Amino acid sequence: MRAWTIGITAALAAAPCFNTVAADEALPNYDPVAYCKRVSDMIGKSAWMTKACLDQEQSAYDELKPVWAGLPDPMKQTCQRQASMIGRSYWYLKACVDQESTATKQLEGYKFRR
């Protein structure tokens, strides 16, 4: 199963968590084991899904950890809010950071064409 499929499943499975998010130098402290268990439970308690989800969460965490402190605070706040709304997932946090980084670069010098 591809990562985006796991992500879609996770979005449907995870309960929203609405809380105020403050930008911080430390990467947020999510609970990937609990998150992946919820995802797996929604599709029949699949051991394979749990393992795939945990691998995905670990990979995202490992990629975010060395760069998190250097990200702009508004990006951190936006992405923490989004990741929290879908279950506090490092994979979603990283996806948001990647998308925000790309969009920020694309907006540099952007001119609307008529």
SSE map:
Blueprint: H1 3-13, H2 32-42, H3 47-64, H4 73-85, H5 90-107
Helix pairs in contact: 1-2, 2-3, 3-5, 4-5
Structure write-up:
- The chain has 114 residues and is mainly alpha-helical.
- The chain has one domain (3-15, 29-102).
- The protein has 5 helices and no strands.
- α2 (32-42) packs antiparallel against α3 (47-64) and α3 (47-64) packs across α5 (90-107).
- The longest helix has 18 residues, at 47-64.
The largest β sheet comes out as: none
Tally of strands:
0
Low confidence ranges = 8-23
**Average predicted local confidence, pLDDT:** 84
End-to-end span in angstroms?
43 Å
**C-alpha geometry:** elongated
Percent helix, as a range, is 55-70%
Radius of gyration: 15 Å
SSE string, helices as H and strands as E:
HHHHH
Structural class: mainly alpha
Number of domains: 1
Strand content: under 5%
Give the number of helices.
Answer: 5
Describe, in short, the structure shown:
62% of the residues lie in helices and 0% in strands.
Task: Summarize this structure as a short list of keywords or feature phrases.
5 helices, single chain
